[in-house]
């Protein structure tokens, strides 16, 4: 559909399909209705539940402070939508504008939004992953099963990976009084997301709260007893641990496999889209009927050198979904770009960690307020002479100030008038991020270059 008349027809009686009954999918659907879309609206989700909030799963639910069925997302308004839950999308026919489902059905659309998000990366050895006692944490059912096992008071819990989710799980285990070992192949927790300077503070927090933290090691194998119950973990340093529960926290995989062969610019890094959330096809040509939002999307941002950013952030999912929904049903002149500044929070070991911007892009860090030794500080990241990000440990009041500096491309280091005059705040130091070619656990922002697609294609010149 194109032109004012057809756009009005779309708004009145068109068919919009949202694949991904997620936070982004729900907020997109609500925005469509709020902005006057009165046509057919269908939401497709592979889980049986209507959209729910995921952050509480690794926090309140594991601690027993909330039940998984009390994590449903609040509704801003009635949707008048058809829900196709518990059935996964298995294919996309872009030319016929149809989504294929696992039950054999096909759903036609005039506009399509993809908000399929990510899933937990499983333990890579299938037989070991099936042992009783091996868990991942992403869905409601994951949280229910893990909470049940932790409530049974296992002798020791092994957390594999010390990114944000792994660290939150370790924190919850210690709060429950459980013995916990964390195995992290990087030099420190959170090192891929926040760098080595801040990672060392995170390591101190783990150890100060009784975590058996082992960095620079990998779990090489999980061993079960004859009944198929987890009993032992083997580490790359040659040691072995007796464990009854292992939680695999090795990052996330973007849910794009169902788009293979569709012609859409989708791959392991997500679905490439422009600043208006329109998806690219494999030729790098933007579509006008397929939009993308949330964790599965990667879009260019002018504040970060137009790098394509993949953001696993709660606030980004909402902001991008609202922008995508607006642009779906509005003319080009009325569309707007998605320019949300990445922001993230993580409570662990009694400390509230928050960040804005893209720390993993930073070359240097300056401790502008507070003290690393006191585990209460504000770190500011610089990239090519300007402020690119900030992280706070129990100093969130400073974030709004640094968000403004990021938005205005303020010079780095920041002016001395805003810097604490203690020794560690006087000069920047290397942020100490690992070599980007080496895998680490936990970055919440992935930089994925300028290419609109990860696929290799062959272009055949047109014949005269």
Automatic annotation (TrEMBL):
Keywords: FAD, Flavoprotein, Oxidoreductase
One protein family per Pfam: Reductase_C
Region entry Disordered, spans: 431-464
Residues covered by the Reductase C-terminal domain: 344-414
FAD/NAD(P)-binding domain residues: 15-321
Cofactor(s) the protein requires to work: FAD
PANTHER family: APOPTOSIS-INDUCING FACTOR 1, RIESKE DOMAIN-CONTAINING PROTEIN-RELATED
UniProt-recorded name of the protein: FAD-dependent oxidoreductase
Organism of provenance: Streptomyces coffeae
């Amino acid at each position: 559909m194109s032109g004012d008349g057809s756009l009005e027809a779309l708004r009145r009686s068109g068919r919009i399909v949202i694949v991904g009954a997620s936070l982004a999918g729900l907020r997109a659907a609500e925005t469509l209705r709020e902005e006057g879309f009165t046509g057919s609206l269908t939401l497709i989700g592979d889980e049986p539940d209507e959209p729910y909030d995921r952050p509480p799963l690794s926090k309140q639910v594991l601690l027993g402070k909330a039940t998984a069925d009390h994590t449903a997302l609040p509704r801003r308004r009635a949707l008048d939508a058809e829900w196709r839950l518990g059935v996964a999308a298995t294919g996309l026919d872009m030319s016929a504008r149809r989504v294929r489902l696992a039950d054999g059905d096909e759903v036609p659309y005039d506009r399509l939004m993809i908000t399929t998000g990510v899933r937990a990366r499983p333990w890579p050895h299938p037989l070991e992953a099936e042992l009783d006692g091996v868990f991942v944490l992403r869905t409601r059912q994951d949280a229910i099963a893990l909470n049940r096992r932790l409530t049974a008071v296992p002798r020791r819990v092994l957390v594999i990976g010390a990114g944000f989710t792994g660290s939150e799980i370790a924190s919850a285990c210690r709060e429950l009084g459980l013995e916990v070992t964390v195995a992290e192949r990087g030099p420190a927790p959170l090192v891929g997301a926040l760098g080595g300077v801040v990672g060392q503070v995170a390591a101190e927090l783990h150890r100060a709260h009784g975590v058996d933290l082992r960095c620079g090691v990998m779990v090489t194998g999980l061993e079960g007893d004859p009944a198929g119950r987890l009993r032992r973990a083997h580490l790359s340093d040659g040691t072995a641990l007796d464990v009854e529960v292992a939680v695999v926290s090795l990052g996330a995989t973007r849910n794009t496999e169902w788009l293979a062969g569709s012609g859409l610019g989708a791959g392991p890094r997500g679905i490439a889209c422009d600043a208006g959330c329109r998806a690219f096809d494999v030729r790098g040509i933007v579509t006008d009927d397929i939009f993308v939002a949330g964790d599965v999307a990667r879009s260019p941002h002018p504040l970060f050198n137009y790098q394509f950013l993949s953001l696993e952030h709660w606030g980004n999912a909402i902001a991008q979904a609202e922008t995508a929904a607006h642009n779906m049903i509005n003319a080009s002149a009325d569309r707007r770009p998605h320019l949300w500044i990445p922001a993230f929070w993580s409570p662990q070991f009694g400390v509230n960690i928050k960040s804005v911007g893209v720390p993993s892009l930073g070359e240097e860090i300056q401790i502008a307020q507070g003290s690393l030794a006191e585990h209460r500080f504000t770190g500011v990241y610089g990239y090519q002479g300007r402020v690119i990000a900030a992280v706070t440990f129990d100093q969130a009041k400073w974030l709004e100030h640094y968000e403004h500096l990021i938005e205005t491309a303020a010079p780095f280091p920041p002016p001395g008038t805003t810097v604490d005059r203690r020794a560690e705040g006087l000069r920047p130091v290397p942020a100490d991020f690992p070599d980007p070619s080496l895998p680490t656990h936990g970055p919440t922002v992935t930089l994925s270059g300028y290419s609109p697609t990860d696929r290799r294609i062959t272009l055949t010149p047109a014949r005269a």
